[in-house]
Automatic annotation (TrEMBL):
Its cofactor is Mg(2+). This is Putative VRR-NUC domain-containing protein. Residues 48-111 form the VRR-NUC domain. GO terms for molecular function: hydrolase activity, acting on ester bonds; nuclease activity; nucleic acid binding. Keywords: Hydrolase, Nuclease. It comes from viral metagenome. The keyword Nuclease applies.
Amino acid sequence: MNNKIPIPKEYDEQVMLFEWADLMSARHPELYLLTGSLNGVRLTIGQAVKAKRAGMKKGYPDIHLPVSRGGFHSLYIELKRLKGGRVEPEQKAWHGRLRLEGNKVMVCRGSVEASEVIMDYLSKNILKEVY
């Protein structure tokens, strides 16, 4: 008998993260702005062609929180399974470009780590320019 607990897939981790965000959004309204990409969803060839034509790009991070904190413009999260999964070269390239533009980019293993990163990010000071 195999008693190993199955490791959730990346998609399931992302669903759990957004369920958590929905629960927390009353106390942290910034979480209403949290969005996820569908880059990790398997598509038919026809769907993939349509998605690419409509702007989907390989390597784009899974999660985006367009809220400025701690000197960063936004938070991007590349979500990985608790075990397995690696950051691909296209993802690394996106991360570098996004960091150059003043964004915080994190790679998180699982929804719990991602939720901790989000809460830490939201706890940072809001920097406002004086006009």
